[in-house]
Every structure is written in C-alpha cells, then in structure tokens.
Amino acid sequence: MLNNKSILITGGTGSLGKELTKTILENWPNVRRLVIYSRDEQKQFQMAQEFPEHKYPAIRYFIGDVRDLERLKRAFTDIDYVIHAAAMKHVHIAEYNPDECVKTNIGGAENVIKACLSSNVSRVVALSTDKACAPINLYGATKLTSDKLFIAANNIRGKQDIKFSVVRYGNVMGSNGSVIPFFMNKKSEGVLPITDPNMTRFNISLKGGVEMVLHALDEAWGGELYVPKIPSYKITDVAEAIGPNCKQEIVGIRPGEKIHEEMITASDSFTTYDLGKYYVILPQVTNWNLEDYVKEFKAEKVPVGFSYNSGENEEWETVQTLRSLIKEHLYPDFEA
C-alpha cells in the first residue's frame, strides 16, 4: 500500500507519529519518502537517534509549524499521503491559552488543507479525539471544527484526485501526557490523584491507533469520520492496577474535563454506519453513491438514537487486563 509512496506526518515526533514511523518502515521497506514534520527541534533530534537517516534512507526531518502555510506548501512538494497529527492537545493548557489553541488546531487545519489542495497530495487523514464529540472544552471545540474542515474539504477539491477523511478515538495508552505514565511517575509518592472516582475513558493502544490511520488511508472514499470499537476503563481501576498500595486522593476535575467521554452522539446516529471493526459517521451529503458504499463495505445503519459513550460501553478493561496491557505495550518490567 505504501511502497513507492511519499508520506508526510505533521506532528510526526509525537507518540502516534513515532509509532506510525516504526510501522511504516517495518512493513513498507520500499516507501519512497517519509517526512517527519514538526516544530520541536529537540524532539526531532531525539527521534533521529532512533530512526537515523543513514539507516532509513527514506526518512526526512523537516522543521516547520502548521501555522506557516508557505512552509507547509514547501514540505508537501511531491508528497502522496498526508497524516495530520499536529495539535495542541492538553485540555487545561488550551483553556488558559485559547488563542494559541485556535491558531494551531483550527488555523493549522486550514493551512494543511490549503497546502494539500495546492500540491499533488491524494490522501489526507486527520486525527481527531473523543473530546471533539459534544465538546465542553476549547480543545474539543477546536478539534470538532478541524474535523468539519477536513470533511468539508472534499467539497472544494474540484476534479483533483484527493480524499480527506478523519479518525476519532479515545485516550491512547501511554501517549505523552496521558494518565498511565502520570500515575507511574506518581506511584513512588504513595498517593495517586483522582479527579473524580466515577470518571471513565475510552482506551486504545498506539498500535490500534496506527491501524486505524492506515485503514483510512487505504479504504476511505472521502468524507468519512471513523470511530473504533474499543473498551473503556474506570480511572480508579487504572490507579488500582498501577499502585494497589497507593492512597487514591480525590482532587476534583480540571477545567473543561468530562466525567465520561463520547465518540458518537444520538444526533450523529442518522448518518452513522457499523462497518464491523469500526463505526463510520458519514457526511450528510456525499460526493459518491451511498448505496454503492453500503454494498462495498457491508455497512449496517445504526439505530436512530444510538450513541457511543465511555460510561455506557459494553466492553471494559479490568484491573488485571490493564496490568497486562501496561506490561505488554508500555513497561515490560512493570510489577504492581
């Protein structure tokens, strides 16, 4: 699928960007070019130690900000596929610095779209978040706007052979700033801060996130918003899995946080289909025949009023499964 293709990842030095890089280099050794585009020179320097250019001749490191349209246009020269992972993502930081969040998450999305349309890019996958669904914080609102921009971009592509799609998922296990590394660092203090004992979150591994991006690159017709079927966990179970002897101290939720996350609302149900491994929210007006799409992917319409919520999920991680996942995916020497 990716052999002889040129791929660019914005925010490529982040957790998912690095996992995508590893997966692409392992599975498509004949990839023509893999460009890591980000604004953090230190992270690029560190990533280049793990994926050096002399060992991986296809890889390129490109310093740039998604706020800079001209820099994006330069970076997108001769690129086939773009994966847009750059974002400001910390909820409380976005609440305190709203203008910066808007510039990166909305202005940056607009710039990526413009740069793609002015080049020969043929596939674009933008990363979303569960916080973009019925948002109550600025981060979620900016990512919902970004989702809408990428989906609507299919309406302005004209005769260009380019498809824009979006993938939305929950907390990526072990990603930068997420709860598991945070609790692992706090464990030695004997106290784990719990925002709310009823809090739940969706859970997906880095590998699962990568698989979803690659699925969208390969399968999307343009305009889809993919949602994975993944388990939820209780924040108290994560704390018990990591520090069974630690005190759980209730500290209250931070500005902009939800008790439960949602990825599909009841209002979305009218255009949501079950694809088996994933749900897909389709645009109300498509550039292709809906009946053909349903037939091609054996898509089944979800019931009207269907919603997908981390607190009402049918699949749950337990303390034991969480420990196994932590050991398998994050910390091989982990012992509770």
What does this structure look like?
With 336 residues, the protein is α/β, with parallel strands linked by helices. The protein is 36% helix and 20% strand. It is built from eleven helices and 17 strands. Helix 3 crosses helix 5 (98-117) and helix 5 packs parallel to helix 6. The longest helix has 20 residues, at 98-117. The mean pLDDT is 95.
Could you give a short description of this structure?
This protein has 336 residues and is of the alpha/beta class. The chain has helices spanning 15-27, 41-50, 69-75, 91-96, 98-117, 138-152, 179-186, 206-219, 235-242, 290-297, 319-330; strands at 6-10, 33-38, 59-63, 81-84, 123-127, 163-167, 171-172, 191-194, 200-204, 225-228, 232-234, 247-250, 262-264, 272-274, 278-281, 300-301, 308-309. Helix 1 (15-27) crosses helix 8 (206-219), helix 3 packs across helix 5 (98-117) and helix 9 (235-242) crosses helix 11 (319-330).
Could you outline the blueprint of secondary structure elements for this entry?
Blueprint lengths: L5 E5 L4 H13 L5 E6 L2 H10 L8 E5 L5 H7 L5 E4 L6 H6 L1 H20 L5 E5 L10 H15 L10 E5 L3 E2 L6 H8 L4 E4 L5 E5 L1 H14 L5 E4 L3 E3 H8 L4 E4 L11 E3 L7 E3 L3 E4 L8 H8 L2 E2 L6 E2 L9 H12 L6
The total count of strands amounts to 17
Q: Rough shape? A: globular
Uncertain spans, ≥5 residues at pLDDT below 50?
A: none
Share of residues in strands: 15-25%
H/E order of the elements?
Answer: EHEHEHEHHEHEEHEEHEEHEEEEHEEH
Range of helix content: 25-40%
Number of helices: 11
- What is the arithmetic mean of pLDDT? 95
Radius of gyration equals 20 Å
Q: Separation of termini? A: 41 Å
Structural class: alpha/beta
* Biggest sheet statistics: 10 strands, mixed
Strand order of the largest sheet: 3-2-1-4-5-6-10-15-14-16
